Amino acid sequence: MWREIWGDRQNSSPRIKIDLILRNLSPTLSKTLKDDFNVETDPTWGPGIYFRCNAERTGIIVIHELPKTKDTILLRLLGKGSVQAEAIKELTNLPKDHPYLQETLRHISILQINLKLRQNKTKDIKEVIMNLSPAYEKWHEEAIAQGRSLERLSIAKTMLQEGAAMNFIAKVTGFSVAEIEQLSLKREE
After folding, report:
1. Vertex 108, ends 102 and 125: CA angle to 5°?
2. What is the pLDDT of residues 116-171, one digit of tens each?
């Protein structure tokens, strides 16, 4: 059950390794609750992580206190209000090849669709829907672009099979003649 969220604490950037048996996530934690739970921070773990006594091996991750890094985006998506909105903005600005971008955008989009279908939406649900909108829009645009690209590729392959001229295929599909030649070579292999 050992899970690493931030990675190696030896790196130059602040990193946190979670090796607790029980972790609690909370968007916020008031001073009163910190006192009631008798939790303390450990500077080697970074902000937003609080511990109870060592014998209990429990910790509380306070989402709104986490550092704003790529490593904490997924946790900050669980936050509220501006913390969640900022995490979504950071997520949508990640490079297209980022390891968890596409799958996270897909899940966020499904969540937004499901929340929109709800009857009697609370103020909090409406805020989450609004916060999720940029991620949904980015996922939707990328899904449409991917579909169009696959359609263009399919048309080009069909035209090659039918013996159409490469210049004509390039004109119809928007691919360059060099790209059509590459496609033709792959088809022959």
Report:
1. 165
2. 998 899 998 898 888 888 888 888 898 899 999 999 999 999 999 999 998 999 99
Separation of alpha carbons 169 and 162, rounded Å: 11
Residues 145 and 141: their CA atoms lie apart, in Å, by: 6
83, two tokens? 């913390």
Which pair of structure tokens corresponds to residue 175? 């691919």
Distances (CA, A) of 170 to 104, 116, 163, 179: 35, 42, 13, 8
22-26 and 49-51 strand pairing: unpaired
Contact partners, residue 123, CB within 8 Å, separation at least 6: none
The more confident residue out of 54 and 96 is 96
State the average pLDDT over residues 20-30. 81
- Distance between alpha carbon 77 and the CA centroid of its chain, in Å? 8
CA–CA separation, 39 and 12 (whole Å) = 26
Record the pTM. 0.65
CA–CA separation, 155 vs 160, rounded Å?
Answer: 9
Class of residue 134 by CB neighbours under 10 A (exposed 0-12, middle 13-18, buried 19+): middle
Q: 62, 106 in Cβ contact below 8 A?
A: no
Would you list the domain boundaries of the chain? Answer: 1-67, 150-188
